[in-house]
Amino acid sequence: MKPRTYDGITPTQFAAIAAAVKSKTGIPVSGDVGQASGKGITISWNYDPQAQTLVLTPLKRAWYDPSEATIDLDLDALVKGAR
User: What pTM does this model have?
Assistant: First the structure.
């Protein structure tokens, strides 16, 4: 699965995105860089507060997810909702 890069993410927005990811998936996004799993999904993230860039990479999808595109749309919606 390929990384998703989001530009213009302020520290406040990153905190909101992290909270939304935890709420929706149970994945605890903690710190600027990491990897975690929840509900059969594994993601990694790398947030650079100076560049205001967030890279989210789905590493494993749940067996019941029909496609990689579904995960991409879910991540895009979480980021958009936090902006």
Answer: 0.80
